[in-house]
Design a protein that fits this description.
Blueprint lengths: L1 E4 L4 H17 L8 E4 L9 E4 L22 E6 L8 H7 L2 H6 L1 H4 L7 H8 L8 E4 L4 H5 L8 E5 L8 H10 L3 H7 L4 E7 L4 H7 L4 E8 L4 E3 L1
Parallel strand pairs: 1-2, 6-9
Antiparallel strand pairs: 1-3, 4-7, 4-8, 5-7, 6-8
């Protein structure tokens, strides 16, 4: 991790590092080191930059790259905890500053880290997951196609899961159509899994909550909503 500021506030830095450590704990990662940089005159008082990266390795035999995805496979959605750090330009535009300050806990609910929930499937003797996509910046529209083989698309049934009220409120305030919302925000789905129809029940048994939200079909690589 890299933490940069004009003048170090030890209390703030400590809270930031605690958050990073908790993220590492949830994802079974090790925090190997980091850097703290003070640059007086470059950062205004009370502001800081935070950056980081993670490195991992996977056996080629266990790579999940979407190559086995076929027509008729089922798209499953795992719920998000909220905005998941995406779409905040839109959020700041539609909510007045006073409301942002009042609702900060709701708007800044930490992103779910799905590692502990998903790893049992990956480590099983037969991994049933054919493809996975985080619904981050670019929403459904830009993230799901990255895992699809050529000649396949995904049809999402857009109201097949309970969309949290926050997203509906943002849509109403911004007066945005569904396709723009699904390109900008996660709409209550933080992770998408693609599995064979016969394996849906296994995923449903192993996760606290998951929704069948779509299907793979022939067509130009992309996402369409029904």
């Amino acid at each position: 991790d890299y933490f940069a500021c004009g003048k170090l506030d030890v209390g703030v830095a400590e809270k930031v590092v605690k958050g990073i450590v908790e993220g590492c704990r949830q994802s079974s990662c090790v925090l190997l080191g980091g850097e703290t940089a003070e640059m007086p005159g470059f950062y205004p008082a009370g502001e800081y930059d935070l950056a980081g990266f993670a490195v991992g390795a996977v056996d080629k035999a266990h790579v999940i790259d979407g190559k086995t995805i076929r027509t008729g496979d089922i798209v499953l959605g795992v719920p998000s905890s909220g905005l998941h750090s995406n779409g905040f330009s839109l959020v700041r535009k539609v909510f007045p500053e006073k409301e942002l300050a009042k609702r900060w806990k709701e708007l800044l609910t930490p992103t779910i880290i799905y590692v502990s929930a998903i790893m049992p499937f990956i480590q099983a003797e037969r991994n049933v997951i054919k493809g996975m996509a985080h619904i981050t910046g670019g929403g459904f529209t830009d993230n799901i196609p990255r895992i699809l083989p050529p000649g396949l698309q995904v049809r999402i049934t857009s109201r097949s899961w309970p969309i949290p009220e926050l997203f509906l409120e943002i849509q109403q305030k911004a007066k945005l159509p569904d396709d723009e919302m699904f390109r900008t925000l996660n709409m209550g789905i933080g992770l998408v899994l693609i599995v064979a129809p016969n394996d849906v029940s296994e995923i449903e048994k192993g996760l606290p909550k998951v929704y069948p939200i779509g299907v793979v079909e022939d067509g130009s690589k992309g996402v369409r909503f029904a």
